[in-house]
Amino acid sequence: MERITGTYEESTVAGEVVRAFVPFPLPPEEPPLRLDGELGVLLASATERLRLLDLAGDLVPSVDWFVYAFVRKEAVLSSQIEGTQATLLDLLEVEASGEAPVDADVEEVCGYVDALNFAWASLHRDDGLPISVRLLSETHRRLLAGARGATKQPGEIRRSQNWIGGTRPGNAVFVPPPPHRLAELLGDFERAVHDGSDLPPLVRAGLLHVQFETLHPYLDGNGRLGRLLITLLLKHWGLLSRPLLYLSLFFKLHRQEYYRRLSAVRTDGDWEGWLAFFLEGVAVVADEAVATARRLHAIVADHRERLVLRDDATMISVRLYEHLPRHPVVTVNGAIDLLGCSRPAALKAIGVLEEAGIVRPLGERRKNRAVAFEAYLDLLRQGTELVR
Ligand SMILES: Nc1ncnc2c1ncn2[C@@H]1O[C@H](COP(=O)(O)OP(=O)(O)OP(=O)(O)O)[C@@H](O)[C@H]1O
Ligand SMILES: [Mg+2]
Question: CA 42 to CA 206: how far, in whole Å?
Fold first, then answer.
């Protein structure tokens, strides 16, 4: 289906004249979206499976560790899409050490976690910012808080022309709107979040993600912020009461198609094709998240049983074990803090868990030894490994 989704405007970058794209405000018109047929089926399925994921969150006894784990999984995946080389284990190790990250890639993922936590909390609080350009900019400031982001104007809407793909604007895959149009376009964007649209919220979230990427309002971090936006919109419209959907897994697995579909909205007006891809992703990842949550839960229960049946199990080792789902990587100092015990007692507890084959030592940190909850991490890690 052919549909015109915006206009082109001439913009000058470094003496070169380029055609910058200025999208029409949402929702798509001429023709309006058709949500019947195959798209209707995908929408119903994605909505139902997302509901089941949200319900799964209600059913598990201690949901906070799922949230902890899945937020980190999403942070790693979303950052990997654009080539960040940090793994889930890298992130958890740094968090467990209590030290500031030295590696720029890990720092970037830490920024994502911080940004998501900030924005999510803001939507929760009565006096927090609603979804708005201000909230996005404050979130962006945190996302790009690390050394690498410092030169990219964290928290500020860009004042220069940018481009995607290619070595210079003249051979770019896509040139987003000129900076002087952004104030007006972001105003339209905010209105599209808060107007009384009768489109289904899941569809609106999909449309808004593309619109955000098309505006590319920041110098960097637009991909990550735009994916984070999806989570915020699902919360805003009551589809997700906890950030348990790690949609970036799907975007990472189908990265070429993800980029192609984003482009096709601009070049062919193919909103329907994008929505089919997006809704499929929501359904697949929601299913996988439910299955992962179940399996993680089973691992925690099995290992607990294995531990308490052992002759060498002590009260303190069982107490340490109960912290593992929320601290799947733990250092000796971390264990001392968690248990409020002496160093020898913490070492003893870790030793018992090691003997039982529940945790394994990580690397050679002499001063502050770290161990990992292996079976748990192996499962959580799926999809976040790097293909080196
Ligand atoms: N052809 C396209 N049209 C519109 N948006 C696109 C296109 N190709 C990629 N994108 C979006 O642009 C994002 C990359 O933009 P940007 O570099 O600002 O994000 P980022 O999160 O900083 O990524 P990086 O880790 O590379 O710095 C992609 O993740 C994708 O969402
Ligand atoms: Mg970038």
Answer: 13
pLDDT class of 230 with cuts at 50, 70, 90:
very high
Q: Which ligand is nearest to the CA of 219?
A: 1
What does the alpha-carbon distance between residue 94 and residue 101 come to, in Å, rounded to a whole number? 6
pLDDT digits (tens, 9 = 90+) for 295-345: 999 999 999 999 999 999 999 999 999 999 999 999 999 999 999 999 999
Report d(CA 72, CA 329) in Å as an integer.
13
Chain centroid, CA 27 distance in Å: 25
**Ligand 1 pocket mutation, candidates 84, 112, 116, 213, criterion most atoms within 8 A of CB:** 213
Domain 6-290: which CATH number of 3.40.640.10, 1.10.3290.10, 2.60.40.10, 2.60.120.200: 1.10.3290.10
CATH class assigned to 310-380: mainly alpha
Give this prediction's pTM: 0.95
Closest ligand to C-alpha of residue 162 is 1
Q: What is the pLDDT of residue 386?
A: 82
CA of 294 to the centre of ligand 1 (A): 33
CB 214 within 8 A of CB 24: no
Q: Which ligand is nearest to the CA of 247?
A: 1
Report the separation in Å between the CA atom of 223 and the middle of ligand 1, taken as the mean of its atom positions: 4
357 falls in which pLDDT band (50, 70, 90)?
very high
Q: Give kind and range of the element (H or E) at residue 208.
A: helix 201-215
C-alpha 380 – ligand 1 centre gap (Å): 26
388 pLDDT exceeds 60?
no
The residues spanned by each domain of the chain are 6-290, 310-380
User: By alpha-carbon position, which residue is closest to atom 5 of ligand 1?
Assistant: 213
Measured CA to CA, the distance from residue 165 to residue 344 in angstroms comes to 56
